[in-house]
């Protein structure tokens, strides 16, 4: 009987490859985690000797392993169960010894167990991505963000790349009882586990986080039934927002529906990508990696808002158009030209305006070489809403102009009707002077010159009205 010690997927993979080469059957090998006792079969030396002996005896066939299995194995390797390595090797053996379509047999005992493990790991990884909360500490004059988390499985290496993409410009560390990871803005560095008592106690960011959370909260955290399923109680102690849950219950049901629909653990909202730091440049950087809905797949890039951080007036459009998508800036295409004309007509300097959109990725339909604008649907608007909410939380404008029905419905309410409510100042949670008007593209697209002129005059009149609230 051979004994193999493996802690990571790479270690198991290296060992499994050598065992296959030496024709070692699953019943002849025992896998173990090191549990701090490396040395049983440490560096594969014994395996290598076995493999070399075997290679000298006769050539072995080169095995082709389905990518699907490797993806599965990579996740299963993070599972806590000690039998995972043996199951993986047994399944690998069967796949390479006549059962090539084994993974399709989901009723098979090994396959079923591996799929169950993979699902459990995936859910745990999702929870870690959603529930890790960083605390700011100063180390040698340098700002560092530290989080302590207790995952069910060994998922630190699985999730660390996600955090490096999400917080590329911060020094941060995530400590767990089994393993820790740090990011120095260049590379990930793994270290030993850390007990909860070692994590920083104080945090000036917690109040800010609570306020922020009140605006962007994830409904799974406020529906008690869903919450206990999605967020095990043991994570609560590390989440500052849990003490405001009661206040948030009132708005939960609608958003819980969305959350329940994503039980498999994939992001369905920009909320999963929001940074903890409330600053426009940090928000902008985080939005670049947003995958809160499918729109990021076809678009060129995220088009975030731009303008002075102390802007008194904010204009929110629907979504970037073709040229905005290519340039990465809002309102730089033909609709932007119409807007510029309207702003000039009322004497508002575009440089003093913060311009953004309700949805940050371009939604379109390919038509030959052209990309035709498509209106975002309710789900996409809802998914993207946390970005504009975060922008408005920071900007706190005196005047908020909603350009078009999409922006108005997102910020004023779903029942908003442009034809009935346009041009009036409405009090919203974002601004006491929220003024809905036409989107410049409505002017642009209207084929009737007389109607077009009237629409432009209305847009100008509404912006003029908005300007009166600036004083
Ligand atoms: S449209 Fe919004 S929610 Fe969807 S991927 Fe883009 S930024 Fe994220």
Care to describe what's here?
This protein starts with a strand and ends with a helix. The strands form four sheets. A five-stranded mixed sheet has the order 3-4-5-6-7, with helices on one face. It has a four-stranded parallel sheet with strand order 9-8-12-13, sandwiched between helices. It has a two-stranded parallel ribbon with strand order 1-2. Helices cover about 45% and strands about 15% of the residues. About 40% of the residues are buried. It folds into four domains: about 1-120, no CATH class; about 130-200, no CATH class; about 205-265, no CATH class; about 275-470, Uracil-DNA glycosylase-like domain (Uracil-DNA Glycosylase, subunit E, 3-Layer(aba) Sandwich), CATH 3.40.470. Strand 10 (about 365) and strand 11 (about 370-375) form a beta hairpin. The protein is elongated and about 85 Å long. It has helices at about 10-20, 45-55, 65-75, 85-95, 110-130, 155-165, 205-215, 225-230, 245-250, 250-260, 280-285, 295-300, 320-325, 335-345, 380-395, 405-410, 420, 440-445, 450-470; strands at about 1-5, 30, 135-140, 140-150, 170-175, 180-185, 190, 315, 355, 365, 370-375, 400-405, 435. By secondary structure, it is of the alpha/beta class. The chain contains 19 helices and 13 strands. The protein binds iron/sulfur cluster. The site of iron/sulfur cluster has 15 residues, from helix 12 and helix 15. Iron/sulfur cluster binds near residues 270, 293, 295, 383 and 387.
């Amino acid at each position: 009987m051979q004994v193999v010690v493996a802690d990571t997927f790479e270690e198991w993979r290296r060992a499994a490859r050598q065992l296959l080469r030496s024709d070692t059957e699953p019943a002849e090998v025992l896998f173990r985690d090191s549990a701090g006792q490396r040395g049983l079969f440490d560096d594969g030396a014994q395996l290598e000797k076995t493999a070399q002996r075997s290679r000298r005896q006769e050539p072995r066939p080169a095995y082709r392993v389905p990518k699907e299995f490797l993806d599965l194995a990579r996740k299963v390797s993070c599972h806590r169960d000690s039998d995972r390595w043996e199951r993986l090797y047994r399944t690998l053996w069967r796949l390479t010894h006549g059962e090539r379509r084994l993974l399709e047999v989901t009723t098979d005992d090994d396959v079923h167990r591996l799929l169950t493990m993979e699902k459990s790991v995936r859910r745990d990884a999702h929870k870690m991505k959603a529930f890790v909360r960083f605390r700011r500490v100063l180390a040698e004059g340098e700002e560092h963000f530290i989080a302590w988390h207790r995952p069910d499985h060994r998922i630190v290496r699985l999730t660390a790349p996600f955090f490096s993409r999400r917080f590329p410009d911060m020094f941060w560390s995530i400590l767990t009882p089994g393993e820790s990871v740090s990011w120095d803005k260049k590379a990930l560095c793994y270290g030993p586990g850390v007990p909860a008592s070692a994590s920083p106690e104080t945090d000036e960011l917690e109040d800010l986080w609570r306020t922020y959370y009140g605006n962007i909260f994830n409904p799974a955290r406020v529906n008690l039934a869903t919450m206990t399923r999605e967020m095990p109680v043991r994570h609560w102690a590390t989440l500052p927002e849990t003490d405001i849950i009661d206040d948030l219950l009132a708005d939960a049901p609608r958003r819980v529906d969305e959350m329940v629909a994503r039980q498999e653990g994939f992001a369905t909202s920009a909320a999963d990508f929001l940074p903890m730091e409330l600053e426009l440049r940090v928000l902008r950087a985080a939005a670049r990696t947003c995958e809160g809905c499918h729109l990021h797949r076809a678009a060129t890039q995220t088009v975030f808002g731009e303008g002075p951080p102390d802007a008194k007036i904010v204009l929110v459009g629907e979504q970037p158009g073709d040229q905005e998508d290519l340039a990465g800036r809002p309102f730089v295409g033909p609709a932007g030209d119409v807007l510029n004309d309207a702003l000039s007509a009322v004497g508002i300097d575009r440089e003093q305006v913060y311009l953004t959109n309700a949805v940050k990725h371009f939604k379109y339909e390919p038509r030959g070489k052209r990309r035709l604008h498509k209106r975002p649907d309710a789900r996409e608007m809802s998914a993207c809403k946390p970005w504009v909410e975060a922008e408005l939380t920071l900007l706190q404008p005196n005047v908020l102009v909603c350009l078009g029905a999409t922006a108005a419905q997102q910020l004023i309410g779903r029942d908003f009707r442009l034809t009935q409510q346009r041009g009036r100042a409405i009090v919203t949670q974002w601004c006491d002077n929220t003024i809905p008007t036409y989107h410049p593209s409505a002017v642009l697209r209207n084929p009737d010159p007389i109607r077009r002129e009237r629409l432009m005059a209305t847009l100008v009149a509404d912006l003029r009205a908005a300007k009166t609230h600036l004083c």
